[in-house]
């Protein structure tokens, strides 16, 4: 084994081999793959091999589509069989609610260019003759889905990489990472030290502990995962589609005339709490028929022949799962040159091709080449590496594969975790909490109610909160905002390069700005407040704390400035509405500034920073309160009689106003021209991505309709997809649903929206439905 390589990939499963294959394809062949056992001996070998294309976002769907293309051509390229078969898949619904979800899935698939057909129960039975259908409502047929042999795929990827010069070293265990000056310098192994510039952690279940040794957080936890392989069953043929019965927690795949029967039980069984043993090659855990019973009982209901079929093999193979059921990809913010591809949540075979290419491009280009935010490792902060929290959360996340994809569905386990200083006051007032980046945040004030695809029971409560804000004032706890300070002689110079807007402003000014990548796409949007000649307060979204801190830190480069995360130091209270000035004047002697200003003011007995900005389209202030004064200030404001409100109201009001949200409307592949935010771009001073801000393939527009939308619906013109909805909410102010979305043609004024298979007329505009001139904001 060589003593130096440009890249060391740790893990010889399908993901590690895919990364190596794609690095070599891009011309980086000075790569060593280290496998502590044999290729595919960890999780890959016992994977079921299902490849379903559709994911919750367009960018993640594109990754899987690439996987299917790669698997289809890999055998011809390498001479190794892959077992790839495009047999299609059928998903069935036992309940009307599940059928609504499947119809939404089909509409979303068509918006992403995937062939999907809503079918009847009878048509599902024709595609899958061994299935019982009398208790089904219907289903969806996706002919582009398929299955593959995981071990064969891994060998084919490894062979393809080796032919381009990659070295694959089996029986070599990585024992630690050498980090100097914040960068990867090499890897310690059972066979000696390898110097390298880039390390790629594809170690599967071992990835968390391996990363922890280098000071890197990789939040995943193992859980036992089960399936059985039956003897041959009459009527089961090789071209049988993959069958998914999510209401029964089960899936079915043909194998040698029999069936692979597996699933995702709602209450999973964590494993490896004391660490993953070594060696653990081609090993399974003990059978657990009690844990598997809920899957098997439902499987027999769906395929009655299973009741008399012999069981050839019971597989209990542990796999790693993440807190949100999405895999982990990207460069670690803690250590430069340390990349991760792990935590694939039992979807590693489908994801490996696209994820391997995406990470290889990130490594070679020094930045992602597409929108990888849903899988970005930086969506988690170090707190997410807590083993106890991960163990408790993974009991739920495994089951999310087949759980109902309700709108606004909240995690139930390992909560509460992060709480605002005023959390107890909110709870006492009857708040219904949601979770964002571990924070408990108020969704609305009222009792928890059942999830639904229809008009929710909380709608009247939220409507009242909106009306209070629009007609008087409302108080919001927005403490979960991520907050940084950037201080130093060259803080302004660094930000001028990173920000689209001019931040070389007078002290006490708040600037809304984007930060772009080299392609002109949004890495983030945030507010920057100049609080001193050499100091700025930067405020961004709750979920973006780690990612934005990393992006800004890299962008500072050699400039003399220091970035500090001060999120926990301040509570943020939003006081919004036409009466907000009058309320503040009851509790403060300060002269309140104009829109876009920020100042320290007295508020009762406390001193707070009052920034006159808004995300709801009304006169208002964000109040930055030192954490120790938060309860006092909140009680002072409550004493004025102001209405308390939550994030569902904020969401509806920002959509009424057409305000964009990063991660929905804005992202790494959306330019200012597409976002309608060219007005936030300075004309003279250069900034990153400046030469690409006018690139445009689509346009963000406001949408109004009588349909009840949740986001993700497709937009049609003359029956053909022309865009999709990104965010939606009912607006009591407008009296209709308001939404934002992308359309290919920015001049479009009318369209149809496909909501669970039903078409509704929709009006399209580049102007906000509510107060398009922002007169109310600037009074």
TrEMBL record:
Gene3D superfamilies referenced in this protein's UniProt entry, alphabetically: Aminomethyltransferase beta-barrel domains (3.30.70.1400), D-Amino Acid Oxidase, subunit A, domain 2 (3.30.9.10), FAD/NAD(P)-binding domain (3.50.50.60), Probable tRNA modification gtpase trme, domain 1 (3.30.1360.120)
All residue ranges annotated as the GCVT N-terminal domain in the record: 423-683
PROSITE patterns: PROKAR_LIPOPROTEIN
Superkingdom of this protein's organism: Bacteria
Pfam families, sorted: DAO, FAO_M, GCV_T, GCV_T_C
Start and end residues of each FAD dependent oxidoreductase central domain: 365-420
UniProt cross-references to InterPro entries, sorted A to Z: FAD-dep_OxRdtase, FAD/NAD-bd_sf, FAO_M, GcvT/YgfZ/DmdA, GcvT/YgfZ_C, GcvT_C, GCVT_N, TrmE/GcvT-like
Residues that span the membrane, as ranges: none
Domain Aminomethyltransferase C-terminal, first and last residues per copy: 698-771
Domain FAD dependent oxidoreductase: 7-362
Family: Belongs to the GcvT family.
Protein name as annotated: FAD-dependent oxidoreductase
């Amino acid at each position: 084994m060589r003593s130096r390589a440009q890249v060391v990939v740790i893990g010889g499963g399908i993901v590690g081999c895919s990364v190596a294959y794609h690095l070599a394809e891009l011309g980086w062949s000075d790569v060593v793959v280290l496998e502590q056992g044999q290729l595919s001996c960890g999780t890959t070998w016992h994977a079921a091999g299902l490849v379903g294309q559709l994911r919750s976002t367009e960018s993640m769907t594109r990754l899987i589509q690439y996987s299917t293309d790669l698997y289809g051509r890999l055998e011809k390229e390498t001479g190794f069989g892959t077992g790839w078969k495009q047999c299609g898949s059928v998903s069935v619904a036992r309940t009307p609610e599940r059928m609504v979800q499947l119809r939404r899935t089909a509409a979303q698939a068509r918006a992403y260019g995937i062939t999907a057909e809503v079918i009847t129960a009878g048509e599902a039975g024709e595609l899958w003759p061994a299935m019982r259908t009398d208790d089904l409502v219907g289903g969806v047929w996706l002919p582009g889905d398929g299955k593959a042999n995981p071990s064969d795929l891994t060998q084919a990827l490894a062979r393809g990489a080796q032919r381009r010069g990659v070295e694959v070293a089996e029986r070599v265990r990585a024992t630690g990472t050498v980090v100097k000056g914040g960068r990867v310098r090499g890897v310690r192994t059972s066979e000696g030290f390898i110097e390298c510039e880039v390390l790629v952690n594809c170690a599967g279940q071992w990835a968390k502990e391996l990363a922890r040794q280098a000071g890197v957080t990789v939040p995943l936890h193992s859980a036992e995962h089960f399936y059985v392989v039956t003897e041959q069953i009459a009527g089961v043929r090789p071209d049988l589609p993959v069958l998914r019965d999510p209401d029964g927690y089960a899936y079915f795949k043909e194998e040698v005339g029999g069936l692979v029967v597996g699933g995702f039980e709602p209450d999973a069984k964590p494993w490896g709490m004391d660490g993953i043993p070594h060696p653990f090659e081609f090993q399974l855990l003990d059978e657990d028929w009690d844990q598997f019973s809920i899957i098997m009982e439902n499987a027999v209901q769906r395929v009655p022949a299973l009741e008399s079929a012999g069981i050839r093999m019971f597989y209990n193979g542990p796999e790693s799962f993440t807190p949100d059921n999405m895999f982990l990809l990207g460069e670690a913010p803690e250590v430069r040159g340390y990349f991760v591809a792990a935590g694939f949540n039992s979807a590693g075979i489908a994801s490996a091709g696209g994820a391997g290419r995406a990470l290889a491009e990130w490594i070679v280009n020094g930045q992602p080449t597409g929108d990888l935010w849903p899988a970005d490792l930086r969506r988690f902060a170090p707190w997410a590496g807590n083993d106890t929290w991960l163990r408790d959360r993974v009991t739920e996340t495994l089951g999310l594969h087949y759980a109902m994809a309700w709108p606004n569905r909240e995690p139930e386990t390992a909560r509460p975790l992060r709480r605002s200083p005023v959390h107890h006051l909110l709870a006492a007032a009857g708040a219904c909490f949601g979770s964002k980046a571990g924070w408990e945040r108020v969704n609305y004030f009222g009792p928890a109610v059942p999830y639904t695809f229809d008009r929710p029971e909380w709608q009247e409560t939220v409507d009242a909160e909106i009306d209070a804000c629009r007609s008087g004032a409302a108080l919001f706890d927005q403490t979960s905002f991520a907050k940084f300070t950037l201080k130093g002689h060259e803080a302004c110079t660094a930000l001028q390069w990173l920000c689209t807007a001019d931040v070389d402003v007078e002290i006490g000014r708040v600037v809304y700005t984007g930060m772009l990548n080299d392609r002109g796409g949004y890495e983030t949007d945030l507010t920057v407040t100049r609080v001193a000649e050499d100091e700025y307060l930067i405020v961004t979204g709750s979920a973006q704390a780690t990612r934005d801190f990393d992006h800004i830190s890299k962008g500072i480069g050699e400039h003399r400035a220091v970035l500090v995360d001060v999120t926990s130091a301040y509570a943020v209270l939003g006081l919004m509405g036409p009466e907000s000035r009058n309320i503040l004047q009851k509790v403060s002697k300060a002269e309140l500034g104009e829109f876009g200003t920020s100042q320290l003011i007295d508020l009762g007995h406390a001193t707070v920073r009052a920034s006159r900005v808004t995300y709801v389209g009304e006169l208002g202030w964000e109040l930055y309160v030192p954490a120790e004064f938060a309860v006092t200030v909140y009680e002072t404001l409550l004493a004025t009689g102001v209405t308390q409100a939550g994030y569902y109201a904020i969401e509806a009001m920002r959509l009424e106003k057409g305000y964009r949200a990063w991660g929905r409307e804005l992202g790494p592949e959306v330019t200012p021209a597409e976002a309608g935010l060219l007005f936030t771009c300075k004309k003279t001073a250069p900034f990153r991505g400046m030469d690409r801000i006018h690139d445009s393939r689509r346009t963000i527009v406001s949408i109004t309709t009588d349909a009840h939308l949740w986001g993700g619906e497709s937009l049609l013109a003359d029956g053909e997809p022309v865009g999709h909805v990104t965010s939606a909410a009912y607006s009591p102010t407008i009296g209709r649903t308001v939404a934002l979305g992308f359309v290919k043609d920015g001049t479009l004024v009318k369209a149809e929206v496909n909501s669970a298979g039903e078409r509704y007329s929709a009006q399209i505009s580049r102007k906000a439905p509510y107060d398009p001139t922002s007169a109310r904001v600037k009074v």
